[in-house]
Write a structure and sequence with these properties.
Number of strands: 2
CATH architecture: Orthogonal Bundle
Transmembrane segments: 16-37, 79-103, 110-133, 139-160, 185-207, 242-263
Number of domains: 1
Helix content: 55-70%
Strand order of the largest sheet: 1-2
Largest sheet: 2 strands, antiparallel
CATH class: Mainly Alpha
Protein name: Sugar ABC transporter permease
Structural class: mainly alpha
CATH superfamily: MetI-like
Membrane topology: Multi-pass membrane protein
Radius of gyration: 24 Å
Order of helices and strands: HHHHHHHHHHHHEEH
Pfam family, one: BPD_transp_1
Strand content: under 5%
Subcellular location: Cell membrane
Amino acid sequence: MTTSESPVSEPLWRRAWGHAVLVAIALACIFPIYWLLATSLRRPDDVGSLSPIPWPLSLGNYVDAVEKVDVIGLLLNTFAVSAVSAVGQLFVALLASYAFAMYSFRFQRLLYLAFVGTWLVPFQVTMLPNYVLLYQLGLINNLAGVIVPTLCSALGVLMLRQHLDSFPKELVAAAKMDGRSSWSILWTVVVPNLRPALAALSILLFINAWNEYFWPAVVLQRSNSVVQLGLRSFMGTEGNDWGPMMAVAGLACLPVFALYIVLQRHIVNAFVRSGLK
């Protein structure tokens, strides 16, 4: 006699508890962003209000911010620095991981461990040598000085190497039989199949560069050329100008949100399907 076993359903109270925990975590993550936007939309005289709903709404803080600092210029400079840094790191990581995954050469493992080992070195250790080198090159107080030391990412090499290790080697072998060069195979065979992984890594690198405060503060000592340093313009010895500061901080979130929306499908594919179909 056969008996049909019905799947054991999870108790209702356990599912409700799980959803309640998730909702609480989501609210804890969203609340700081909501409070930032709410404060930026209050009237300038109500910035210190603890009312959870800003009413009446006002764009006065945004107007004050635009009058006091070059908000558009700060956002464009920050976007340029972040984009160039992310693209440079992505390009270097792609070439390095392709070489480590597709070729065999002497001391390959040792070189890979040395390359990835740089990821474990704290930034504070390399900060002073980088600063001295930039000073000798005349790149202090220059946006190029912010970008150049960040063009190589050991994290990017590590992540792309993992994807390329599982890449079908038969495709590469078939391309070689067709007479394609290594450079052609990289851009016509490998890169199209790595688009989800590249998209996920690019947004991670872009966000890291966008949120960086310490290194631009070290290099750009006499100017507030990026938005993170521009926020210091609203901080003074007599107090902080919270309204315009919140307005600029809210505007600084928009490019990252836009980039995530554009690359959302590729990012989900990369994390859920390990980047390869």
